[in-house]
Amino acid sequence: MTMQRRDFLLAAGAAAGAAVLPGCATTGGGSAGKVVVVGGGYAGATCAKYLRMWSNGAVEVTLVEPREAFVSCPISNLVIGGSKTIADVTVPYDNLSRRWGVNVVRDTATGVDVDKRVVTTAGGRNLPYDRLVLAPGIEFMWDSIKSYATAPERAIEIAPHAWQAGPQTVLLRRQLEAMPDGGVYALSIPVAPYRCPPGPYERACQVAWYFKRAKPKSKVLVLDGNPDVTSKAGLFKKAWNEEYKGIVEYRPNHVLTDVDLATKTAKFETADDVKADVLNVIPPHRAGGIARTAGVITANNRWCEVDFLSYESIRGKGVHVLGDSIQIAPGMPKSGHMANNQAKVAAAAILRQLGGQPPSATPMLTNTCYSFITDKDVVHVASVHQYDREKKTMLAVPGSGGLSPAMNELEGRFAMSWAQNIWADTLG
Amino acid sequence: MRKLITTIALAAAAAPALAQTPDPTLARNMAATCANCHGTNGVTKGSDVEPLAGKPKDELIRKVQEFKQGKKPGTIMPQLAKGFTDEQIELMAGWFAAQPAK
User: Fold this and answer.
1) How confident is the model over A224-253, as pLDDT tens digits?
2) B102 or B77, which is more confident?
3) ω into B22 cis (within 30 of 0)
4) 10 Å Cβ neighbour count for A86?
5) In angstroms, how far apart are the furthest CA atoms of chain A?
6) Is A208 within 8 Å of A372 (Cβ atoms)?
7) If pLDDT is split at 50, 70 and 90, which confidence band does A31 have?
8) Which of A59, A158, A214, B40 is deepest in the core (most CB within 10 A)?
9) Is the Cα dihedral A303, A307, A311, A313 positive or negative?
């Protein structure tokens, strides 16, 4: 680290107002350090953009992402319900490269040498870095479902998860469209923690919204691995008892063990088998595979423990982990909003670290999760989190946060506005 | 010369809390927690949510404090405003006030 580089970064950090740099976006790099970001979801894309924005283009940022475009999980349940299309939740990566000068590489990271600080890719690239950001999202634990273990790619064509938005979302929608009226849609929810706590219950509402209009004799069976609804329980149960009475049935304590793929029959640890016409299995998940390759999965062989001041792995070595892959703090959901917020804390910390300074000691995070009950009526849960120096974790600020009192259309407008703004904040 | 010294003294006296904090990026970082709904640097997409960039600092403080103190009904904002101290709200308001509106 040269003095010049440190001085520049400190100056760039202090120049808080000078945010947008039209002139720098095309330079593609600088001399203030190299960061490689693996994964272009809410966490990775936000981190890449903010590293460029807050360093005034001085830090070179490479984003490794195999997908052609970003497809949002939030709002994708409306695609399954039929009130939105997959195009409505798809955002290109163009602005990250064009506007912010992020080097977007369409490739898959396959290796990490944490000592030499190099990422290798399926396409044969060697990407050196000073700091590495892993934001790989989730991978599914296929072994936890007996019949999935050998050929999961075939199993998910029969019983889609649709828990990574994209082709799976479209497949599930097609299956629902093809299902005759009077059919059964069954949704298997894994034991917490999983990505997007209220997401499965919102999905049950969206499928019920579709059935109520198009296939009123059909049923939604919610087969929850948890002992109760894990998020917004009162609000969802009210919707199922009122708006979707006679359509949605909720069954707790349904821990999935196997699926008979030939008959779409779900089997459980302690409950009776359930046969469905459309079977939507969300398998349990863990940190994305590159986190294992990098040796930063440290909790229960599933999640990555991090220092909440910088999101650097507890293993250190300049490897930061963001988003759904991390071992969460108390009350911290695995959500897109949270991932976006974590990414900014990490970006600020990385710029300080590249400049030879410690990360800020007082990071703050907010979270808002909107859930659509109908195509227009929405409920939310919100929270604010601050760093607790003694416990070295993020904790909800006492007295802050809360839920909607009831579903309402105003928040439906706010939810779509949220989507528009967070997509722009992450990718625009 | 005397006028210059007075000006410098006044500038020093009026220096915002920002100058006293050890991390000069604190306001920027905290304000970034608003961007999910209010847009990057407070420049908002759409018309359902209020933009924050370039708004007078006093106006921003007043509005957030009304939510925080329960004087104004809302959905998310009363719950989020209660998560920030008065000093933090002031710091963020000052930062947004200094941002270009576009």
Assistant:
1) 999 999 999 999 999 999 999 999 999 999
2) B77
3) no
4) 16
5) 71
6) no
7) low
8) A59
9) negative
Q: What is d(CA A211, CA A215) in angstroms, rounded to the nearest whole number?
A: 4
Return the closest-CA partner of residue A74 out of A388, A356, A341, A335. Answer: A335
Q: Testing the interface with A: which of B57, B76, B96 to mutate, by most A Cβ within 10 A?
A: B76
pTM of the model: 0.91
The C-alpha angle A339, A342, A343, rounded to 5 degrees, equals 85
Residues A99-155 have pLDDT tens digits of: 999 999 999 999 999 999 999 999 999 999 999 999 999 999 999 999 999 999 999
Question: Which residues on chain B are in Cβ contact (under 8 Å) with A345?
Answer: 29
**A226's tokens:** 């948890």
Residue in this structure with the two tokens 């917020």, named with its chain if needed = A341
Whole-number Å distance between alpha carbons of A121 and A106: 10
pLDDT of residue B102: 81
Strand A312-313 vs strand A306-307: parallel, antiparallel, or unpaired?
Answer: antiparallel
Output the CA–CA distances (angstroms, integers) from residue B26 to A8, A104, A138, A344, A352, in the order listed.
Answer: 18, 29, 31, 12, 12
Per-window interface: A 19-78 vs B, CB < 8 A: 19-20, 50, 53-54
Q: How confident is the model at residue B22 (pLDDT cuts 50, 70, 90)?
A: low
Q: What are B99's two structure tokens?
A: 């941002």
Following DSSP, what letter does each residue of A76-108 receive, concatenated? HHHHHHTSS-GGGGEEESHHHHHTT--EEE-S-
- The predicted-structure confidence for B33-55, as pLDDT tens digits, reads as follows 999 999 999 999 999 999 999 99
Q: Does residue A229 contact residue A371 with C-beta atoms inside 8 Å?
A: no
Longest Cα–Cα distance in chain B: 54
Place of tokens 């939507």: A280
Say how many Å lie between the first and final Cα of chain B, rounded: 39
Number of helices and strands in chain A (H, E): 11, 25
What ipTM was predicted for this assembly?
Answer: 0.90
Mutate to test the interface with B, among A366, A379, A400, A422 (most CBs of B within 10 A): A366
Q: How many CA atoms lie within 13 A of A233 on its CB side?
A: 8
CA distance A71 to A425: 15
Backbone angles phi, psi at A379, to 5 degrees: -125, 155
Single out the residue of B68, A416, A362, A329 nearest to residue B76, CA to CA: B68
Report helix, strand or coil for A4. helix
How far apart CA A147 and CA A263 sit, in angstroms, is 12
Q: Give the Cα separation of A89 and A416 in Å (integer).
A: 11
Of B29, B44, B80, the CB nearest to A382: B80
